[in-house]
Design a protein that fits this description.
There is one protein chain. The strands form two sheets. The protein has an eight-stranded mixed β-sheet with strand order 5-4-3-2-1-10-11-12, with helices on both faces. The chain has a four-stranded antiparallel β-sheet with strand order 6-7-9-8, with helices on one face. The chain has two domains: about 170 residues, 3-Layer(aba) Sandwich (Rossmann fold); about 80 residues, Threonyl-tRNA Synthetase, Chain A, domain 2 (2-Layer Sandwich). The two termini are about 40 Å apart. The chain is built from nine helices and twelve strands. It is about 40% helix and about 20% strand. A hairpin with a 6-residue loop joins strand 4 and strand 5. With about 280 residues, it is of the alpha/beta class. The structure holds magnesium ion (MG). Magnesium ion binds next to loops. One of its GO terms (cellular component) is cytosol. Pfam families: Hydrolase_3 (PF08282). InterPro entries: HAD-like_sf, HAD-SF-IIB-MPGP, HAD-SF_hydro_IIB, HAD_sf. This is HAD-IIB family hydrolase. One of its GO terms (molecular function) is mannosyl-3-phosphoglycerate phosphatase activity.
Length: about 280
């Protein structure tokens, strides 16, 4: 990757070398309205302190672009559960990208061969945007964005449970895995959100020439590895239950979604700056 970052705003390290890495749905974004409004104060604070805020979710590149624009975020971001990382180019024109394991084309190729072996499924690549919209509840426009993929394929299983187990085994032979979510099974490389976090940590350590501490925020089971890999973990309570996590620097937000994100991050930053100034 060509990393000429001379004019990037974060080329100069913040007073405290911190990076925030966050899940989106149910964490920075409200579970129902998808709004980040309640986190505005903390987002502004990060900008003032020159601390990067890296979005790390299962969303696609195009979905992330839209959100970054809405929230005026200019930092690197991690898509599709750690599958792909995008770092804005210093000239403001596009991104340097890094696929951590398997590219979308490589995944589609494996799926094609498995289908020929008789496995039955329908992936996003087999569906029109209208079909994806009907299945996900997204608008047709947003479904179109969700169909532009970099490193994973959601699919609906139409075979038997036994065949699904065989399919899972077959994927392993190709160094792919199956992550089963609510509506879809996701075929992806052996990456997770923690790989995205580590990539960003190394990115800023190289850029700032010093060790970096990472604050991670998340609410779901698929955030567990990312939270564990962070120096400071903030668990946002989920709708149904709150993730149970063992971590030496753990904070559990008292509110769900962006309100909890805002309050807990602000108080952690406050404590870290107090601690730095008293030492
Ligand atoms: Mg979430």
């Amino acid at each position: 990757m060509n990393m000429n970052t001379t004019t990037h705003p974060h080329n100069t390290p913040p007073e405290l070398p911190l990076v925030v890495v966050t899940d989106l749905d149910g964490s920075l974004l409200d579970h129902h309205s998808y709004s980040a409004q309640a986190a505005e104060k903390a987002l502004k604070k990060l900008r003032t302190l020159n601390i990067p805020c890296v979005f790390n979710s299962s969303k696609t590149f195009d979905e992330m672009l839209l959100l970054r624009e809405t929230l005026d975020n200019r930092d690197p971001f991690v898509c599709e559960n750690g599958g792909a990382i995008f770092i804005p180019k210093s000239n403001g024109n596009g991104y340097n990208s890094e696929i951590l394991h398997s590219s979308y084309l490589a995944i589609l190729k494996v799926l094609h061969s498995l289908r020929q072996q008789g496995f039955q499924f329908r992936g996003f690549n087999d569906m029109t945007a209208t079909e994806v919209a009907a299945l996900t509840g997204l608008s047709v426009e947003d479904a179109h964005l969700a169909k532009q993929r970099s490193a994973s394929e959601p699919l609906v299983w139409t075979g038997t449970e036994k065949q699904l187990e065989e399919f899972r085994q077959a994927l392993t032979m190709h160094n792919l895995r199956l992550l089963s979510g609510g509506r879809f099974h996701h075929v992806m490389g052996p990456n997770d959100k923690a790989h995205g976090l580590e990539f960003c940590r190394h990115h800023y350590e190289a850029l700032w020439q010093q060790p970096v501490k990472v604050i991670a925020l998340g609410d779901g089971e698929n955030d567990r590895a990312m939270l564990s890999a962070a120096d400071y973990a903030i668990v946002i309570p989920g709708i149904k239950n709150t993730l149970e996590l063992q971590h030496p620097q753990l904070r559990i937000a008292s509110k769900a979604g962006p309100a909890g994100w805002n309050e807990t991050l602000l108080s952690l930053l406050d404590d870290l700056f107090k601690e730095a100034h008293s030492g």
